[in-house]
Design brief:
Elements lengths: L2 E6 L2 E7 L8 H13 L4 E8 L5 H16 L4 E4 L3 H9 L7 E3 L2 H7 L5
Parallel strand pairs: 2-3, 3-4, 4-5
Antiparallel strand pairs: 1-2
Helix pairs in contact: 1-2
């Protein structure tokens, strides 16, 4: 699963492409968000527009990411969450933890950054 990382001020934007699941390069996702936080990104926007599904391992990765970012005083926003992914997050009650946005500009605005 390719993961691209770019920065917009103090916000790191990760764009995932493919299933967020065991055996699908979860390590690359972890490495990218860890690197972003370590190099000064305070907040994180995770674009899931091209993620068709997420399994329990993927959910665990999202939780670890959220925990690390919030422990460092930052916030995580999810963008472009499809119905299957949203359902997985709803079943695990994580829709109460994450904030969802339709596009990156809205997510960035919620963090005080501009697109």
């Amino acid at each position: 699963m390719p993961v691209s990382l770019r920065k917009q001020g103090s916000v790191a934007i990760l764009e995932l492409n493919g299933k967020l699941s065991l055996g699908n390069s979860l390590e690359e996702f972890r490495a990218k968000w860890s690197d972003a936080v370590a190099t000064g990104a305070r907040d994180l926007v995770i674009n899931l527009t091209r993620v068709p599904m997420v399994d329990s391992s993927g959910i665990g990765s999202l939780i670890r990411c959220h925990s690390a970012v919030t422990a460092a005083g930052g916030k995580v926003r999810l963008v472009g969450v499809g119905e299957m992914v949203r359902q997985s997050l709803k079943v695990t009650r994580l829709e109460r933890v994450f904030e969802f946005y339709g596009d990156e500009a809205s997510a960035l605005a919620s963090l005080g950054a501009s697109a």
